Amino acid sequence: MPARRKLTTFNRGRAIAWLHDGVSKCEVARQLGVSHSVIVRLNQRFQTTNNVEERPRSGRPKKTTPWEDRFIQRQALQHRATTCKVIRGQLWEATNINVSERTIGNRLHDARLRSRRPAVRPLLTQGHRRARLAWSRRHLRWTRRDWAQVLFSDESRFNLYHSDGRRKVWRREGERYEDDTVHERVAFGGGSVMVWEGLQPSSTHPPVPCGRESHWSTLQGRNSRPYCLADPAADWPKRRVSG
Q: Where does the record locate the signal sequence feature (predicted)?
């Protein structure tokens, strides 16, 4: 006996046409390679609904109620860095309902919540924010001439081998250990060089390598101050922008 299987929409239409032409159900089943019961149910459904498409099925019932779904979403929104495992435990303590972590993730996906890497920004306390706002207000009316008297400085670190960011490669199955898809690692990152540089409208301070003991005040005293005083056209070192 042929194994029972699902018919395509095209074959359902062929089956109904053959039945209307007087072909027996057994012959139709043999031609389409399905069991006799499939053709019987197809014919009954067509006579009832005048349609060969399958009726919608309810599917597996959800294990959580709408209230429990909202509880899961609320836990994720109140604690953004939480995990499905933690929410699963909280749901168990609150409702005595035991579900899988996958179910927790599905409920969060239904609420359009996805796990993503957080954006990064500097840590700013309330004191930092007040100080920055006060600084902005003090320099709100500065002109271009005023800013031309300021030396802007910054430090950057340059790794000797690769960047600190997460790296990904495109590869096919079985290419995990190909030379082009392997990331070669050096112990402790392989070292890096910290470079300090000062900028102002009329000139640029040469880059200065920084040692481990270097501090911004040391760099200012050893590099920026002599450089500013050595510039005969620079009367701008007299101005100091403080935070």
A: none
